[in-house]
Design brief:
The complex is a heterodimer of chains A (180) and B (405). Helix content of chain A is 28%, strand content 2%. Chain A has 180 residues and is an all-alpha fold. A two-stranded antiparallel ribbon of chain A has the order 1-2. In chain B, the strands form 5 sheets. In chain B, strands 3-2-1-9-10-16 form a 6-stranded mixed β-sheet. In chain B, strands 5-4-6 form a 3-stranded antiparallel β-sheet. The two termini of chain B are 34 Å apart. The chains are: A mainly alpha (180), B alpha+beta (405). Chain B: InterPro entries: Actin, ATPase_NBD.
Amino acid sequence: MPPARRQHPEVIAKRTKRHLDELEVRRPSASWTLQGLHLRDAPPSQRSNYSEPAGAGAGGDEEDDHGVAPGGRTAKGRARQTIISDKGKKPKKSTMNVRTAVLYKKTLAVLIEDSGIEHLPPGVPTYLRAVAPPPREPPRMLCSVCGFWGKYKCRRCAMPYCDLSCEGVHNETRCERRVM
Amino acid sequence: MSSSNTVLLDNGASTIKAGILGGHDDQPLIIPNAVVRSKGDNSTYIGYELAKCRDFTSLRFRLPFEKGFLVDWDAQKAVWDGLFNDVLRINTSEASLLITEPYFNLPNIQDIYDQFIFEEYEFKAYHRCTQIVSFRQWNMMDETHIINEVKEACCFVSEDFKRDLEACRVQPTKNRIAQEYIFPDYAGNRPGRIRRPGEPLDEAEQTLTMNNERFAVPEILFHPTDIGEYQSPDMPRTAPGLDQAGISATVAASISLLPQDLQGLFWANIALIGGTTALPGLRARLTSELRSLAPIDCEVAVYASERPDLEAYYAAAAFAARPEFSQSMVTREEYQEMGSSACRRKFRDWKPTEKEPAARGRETAKGRGQKGRGQQEDEEDASPPQPKKPTRGRGRGRGSARRQA
């Protein structure tokens, strides 16, 4: 999470706009290659902050938001690298809506909250309400090591196991020693 | 508008089934809906490009869909760019589009669909809906005709979990379930395969023994409580999402929400769509469990098809071919004038919104009826399985890579 410095909303708004403008989600001219993604000789005004093939992959690897702040900015404050594909014909800048959607990725949990479906009147079925009923039977105990019936429980962490050899494996590698 | 192309897009979480109306109605193009990084090849493959991958070890998948909803638009745009420009080779600004969306799609996400389709790709018109599989198009096959490809699939659904689990304890030579899957050797160009009984192995070949995993993995469809943190009286369960009944009980619960006099009709017309339902044994298992849950005098029938992964696409093609289809579309001009509200009015949705009187009466008579749980019981909607086409049971984009052959 980014540090909780208080910043003037104006400053934040300006920076956000700059990031969106920097983000050249444009459709570049033809002549792409199949060898991954290459930057072509686009005029400076159209060039994006995309740097090299590894960058696209790195952008993908940061999906856990480790390297990217939720606001779509990296730790250094630069706009997050997006996947720029060479497909497309027209060198045209995308609309603000599209650029925003591409740059600011929201997780499903955030989207659900934003959608406001929780607050719809009770008669309306929603994603949150269309859930499977609770189970009719208690859970089956399966050995946490090999998957067979787990007749015995670890004394320390309550994970099931099926026999002595699996108990051994469990104690050596998996026991969490949470509960006595 | 009738003279221009209509693009059909069954935009799935695992694969996209795409085609042009009139060109691909029987055989859509299937591409992975993912951006994949291959450390082995040191390359990134976007969507269809995954077919070019040589080294399938240590692949990192970035999926536009999370839990069934489209959340990563950066990735989706990349996949769509490649799809429209290289695979379908169309100029989107001169085409119309029919695209599928998840059930209970969030309204804020729906707006983003509108934005991309009209503002980025500039389609002339489009219609967005959930999968509507027309019962009339349903290809009901007798079980003996169902093709059984056993190529690389190890997974199946057990009819009797207890019996099969115990069969797995038997020593490997007599164990009728265990299979050794030989890993592929990309350097030597040998694909992965199941080891035949008694087949000798090279030194370099590594295998994975699939024993109870073959059916324990699909088993979680029927027993979600099998996974998640172990629950003891002293410890609260830490994985609440899995405290649910399995698919059979869910089907039964869904049907029970319908008017009493219609329930029998639904019990007798359960259809399976979606690639997961192709797991071997799934249809039989589901039928047997449903039989014990349904009222005694109800007929229970579960229908399968040869290509459950393509049924939604076939339905989309049928829908788009109808003369009244164009009336259900929203044009770019309408969007520019009214924004997403034009779509909210014209597209069928789970949310009750004000509709124009003209739009309300018309509907492909697919019995969409009630939303919410009602959708599960829809004649055309699927409950799981069908033993037709064994898949790998993991449902990732690789299914489509195979399709490319």
